[in-house]
Every structure is written in structure tokens, then in C-alpha cells.
Amino acid sequence: MLFSRQLARRPLIRAPRRWTHSPAALAGLKSVTEDDLVHFAHFLPPTSIVSTLSPSAAPSSELESFNNDWMNKYHGRSTTVLKPRTTEEVSKIVKWCNERRIGIVPQGGNTGLVGGSVPIRDELILSLSNMSKIRSFDDVSGILVADAGCVLQSLTDYLAPHNHIVPLDLGAKGSCQIGGNVSTNAGGLRLLRYGSLHGSVLGLEVVLPDGTILDQLTTLRKDNTGYDLKQLFIGAEGTLGIVTGVSILAAPAPQASNNVMLALPKFENVLPLYKETKRQLSEILSAFEFMDRTVYDLAVKHGQGRALNPEDVEGAECFVLVETSGGKREHDEQKLNSLLESLMEADVPLINTGVIATSPAQFSSLWAIREGLTEAVSKEGKAYKYDISVPLYKFQEVVDKTKNHLQEKGLLHEDAVKYVVGYGHVGDGNLHLNVVAAAYTPEIEAALEPFVYELVASYKGSISAEHGIGAMKTHALKYSKNETSIEWMKKIKALFDPNGIMNPGKVLP
Ligand code: FAD
Ligand code: 2HG
Ligand code: ZN
Fold this sequence. Notes:
Elements: H1 34-40, E1 49-51, H2 61-67, E2 80-82, H3 87-100, E3 104-107, E4 124-127, E5 134-138, E6 143-147, H4 152-159, E7 164-165, H5 178-184, H6 191-194, H7 197-200, E8 201-207, E9 213-216, H8 230-233, E10 242-249, E11 251-252, E12 256-264, H9 270-281, E13 285-292, H10 293-301, E14 318-326, H11 329-345, E15 353-356, H12 360-371, H13 373-380, E16 382-389, H14 395-408, E17 417-425, E18 430-437, H15 442-448, H16 451-458, H17 483-496
Parallel strand pairs: 2-4, 3-4
Antiparallel strand pairs: 1-2, 5-6, 6-10, 7-11, 8-9, 8-10, 12-14, 12-15, 13-14, 13-17, 16-18, 17-18
Helix pairs in contact: 9-11, 10-13
């Protein structure tokens, strides 16, 4: 049960395309002008301004990576990106834009998968990339306070020598920022263990749409002094303000981590396996990730790793990556080994085979397969991504029903939809349904929507488990939120941002 293969993280890829519609939310908003740039230049250095309007005319190619999303599906036409270095600079920019009705798109690492991080038209992009200082860390309480523009991986690296970890991990960690994570309420690979950011974020500093700085950057575990305003900004996707600082409770670093990739003969075994894994591993279980056969094969094909011997996994319908994180190596290994033994020796085995990592390189390599799925899919074509919460036992049904539906529409072939795959976070009830097409076309989109959303609603699920609504799902919010909820969301938006400058056209229908 050994293997060894170390995978390198690949750079995120972006390239330009164009927007086709402009929702009502942008009506009345103004474009950035040369006069605005003159104003910004009073308090921002030239290196903080990228604009095709500026006299020194930045090459338009510099704006491309800001105007296009990670999937190359959503495309803005912004003329100007500002990269403030301090909260005060953010405040001055926002105040000016509010007075002049200029729309602002806050941008972190631009790894979002719902088109929330790029403009719909030519809104100003406010990049947090120059705000990347760690403000404080207390190794007794484990509380970390950092600028919103800190890249997730850099926070992890910072905490490592202090024996702590960020209670969040995702495949985009090399590019995404903590402010973006908070603004999307990112879930990731270990939510099962560390819970959601609604629990681990202790405080926020936010620049409100009129430029006021809301300082709620507390470092208290307990604080029941009225409404917990910070919660509104967690998952608001930049529609209520700009997160500039984050106080987060880091978790103690596990003293021992193990992982194992298991091949299962059929999907029906996933849930009994999850139940048994939870029962036997209990407090040391830190991830339980599912991937179907098709997407696993794509990861292997695109060099994201080859964990299991091809002959051993013949006939396997799906795979599960299990991770343990605990305080004592021998104890954890004993528990994991006895789980694996019981699985292999069962009269009706739940698994075909498995690979247990026996070195840090193998541990990373197993994770590289799981974390590399999104990239592998993107190399095969254009992915329609449906990030949904549905009952665990419906995971395979969703994939199969979508496939059948596309087949009936005559769209399941090389030139239209090439693959329909499912993967995700079993512990969180979160399936990533990816429909991989040769190109994004109106015909495929019409076949998928509202089909997928209606299917999710029929299970009383959520149309967005962890990626948010962005520009992609504003019209579909109604499948997961009733009229009253949407009305109150609109009232909250109007209260904070009466001029509608913050990330216009996102989240709300
Ligand atoms: P961006 O993409 O820049 O922005 C996302 C949204 O937040 C936008 O609406 C933007 O306007 C807003 N925003 C950004 N920064 C701020 C700020 N400081 N203040 C206010 N608003 C702001 N997501 C998961 O939940 N789980 C995963 O496991 C996961 N894996 C991924 C793997 C890959 C390979 C990729 C490409 C993406 C993955 N994602 C995942 C999606 C994405 O990485 C997350 O949504 C992430 O939290 C976005 O962070 P970001 O800094 O890139 O934000
Ligand atoms: C993951 O879990 C991310 O890997 C991305 O949330 C999911 O690519 C996707 O659809
Ligand atoms: Zn995910």
C-alpha cells in the first residue's frame, strides 16, 4: 500500500473574454474618470493605481487578470484598479466613490467561482493585495489579527512555527486571501473538523459604503453585547462593505496527521463508510472527501497524482480521502490501521482497496489529487459549476439525473458536454456537480438551468453551499431563500449601501 509522488502547485490561469449583459443594479452608476484619478493620486502612490485612463497609461494587459475570473467565464471592462495599502486609504477611496456614485468591486485573490470578484461593466476594482500585514498573534489564546489581503497560505506559513493552523484550508490557498475567504464564507476541506468562519472569525474591520470605518476587530472569544454585526459581512461577497482586517481563532496544530485514499466498489458504500469512519476515528477525523470515478481519472490524467495502482482500482466507482489530525502519532495510527483492517476484513467489504500515506510527501501527494480536481476539470473544458447542499444519499442521484437530462437533450457528446462529474465534502453535505463542456453556450446553460436548481429545491437543499451567489446565481436565489428572506436581505443592503455602489449586480436579484 505504498506510493510516492510529489506534485507542484500550478499557477492559476486567466485569459480575457467579454461581458454580454448589464443588470439594473448598475443603472445610475458612473464610470471612473481622469478627474477621479487625479483625486486618488493625492493619497495613493503611482504603484497603487493601474488604469488605462492615467496619463502614464498602464498597458491594458495589466488589467486583464483583474477583469477576468479564474474560470475565464466572467469578464469585466474596468479601466481602473486601485491597490490601497491601509484601511484609511480604503476609506478615502470608498467615500469618494460613494459621493460620485462609482461602483466598486472588492477583489481578493480572484479565485471565486461564481463571478463575484470581477466587474459586470466598468466598476472600479479595489484590490486588497497591498494589505498583507499580520497585525498580531497571541500564542496563548491562538487569536490572529491580519490584514484582509493576507494570502491564506502565507497565514498558514506564519502560524506553523507557533504550532497553530488557520481553521480553513482550500485548494486555492496559494492565491485566495483571508478577506476573500471571509467575504465568501469559504468552507473548504476541513470544515467538518474546524467549523464555519461564522464561528472562528472573532472580529472584523470593515469600511462601510460611505467610507466609515467600522472597527469590530475584537479579540474576544465571548462578547454578547447586542447584535453581532460582523456576521453580516461574513458571506456578504463585498456587497455591504470592504473587509480590511480579520481577527480569527487559529487552531492548535495537530501533532500527527495521516491520510488515506480509499477506492469503493459503489457509491452506496460511501455513507456506511462515513458512518463507520466517524464511529472508529471519532475525535481525530478531520476530513472525509468524496470524488467520483470520472473526476478521479481526470485528476490522474492531468498529472494531479496517481495514488492507487490502476489494476487495484478496476471497477471502483468512486474514491474517498480520509484525513486524521490528532495529538499522538501512535494512538492515531493505531486507530486508522484498525479502521482499515476492519474495512478490509468485513464479510461484505465497503472498500476495494486503499493507500495510506507513509511520508509527508505522500501525504501531500494524496491531498494533491483531491485539491487538483478543480484544475483538472478546467483543463478538460469549460465547467458549469453547481456547488450545492443536498442530502448525502442524493449525491449520486444528482449527478445521474443531470447526465440523463443532458443525454435526453442530445447534449452529451464530445462537442457539447463531455463529462458530468461529482465531488465534494461528504461531512458537510456539499456536492460539487461539475458539467464539463467544450465551450460555454446558451444552449447548455438553458438545459442546465433551472433544471439543476429545481432539482436542488426538490430536496430542500441549497443552491450555494460554500462558493456564494456572485453574479452567477442572483436569479436563482429564490430556490433557496423565500420571498420574506430576500426582502429582508434587500432592506439590509439598502440600509448599508443606499447608493448601491458596493459590488453592484452581485448576490441580490
Ligand atoms: P475573490 O475571488 O477575490 O472574491 C470573492 C468574493 O468576495 C467577491 O464577491 C469579492 O468582491 C469579495 N471580496 C473579496 N475580498 C473582499 C474583501 N476584502 N472585502 C469584501 N469583499 C471581498 N471555495 C470554498 O469555499 N471551498 C473550497 O474548497 C474551494 N476550493 C477552491 C479551489 C480552487 C482551485 C479554486 C480556484 C477556488 C476554490 N474555492 C473554494 C473558491 C474560492 O477560492 C473561495 O471562494 C475563496 O474564499 C475566494 O477568496 P479570494 O480571495 O480569491 O476572493
Ligand atoms: C473544492 O471543494 C472547491 O474543491 C471547488 O470548492 C469545487 O471546482 C469546484 O466545483
Ligand atoms: Zn468545495
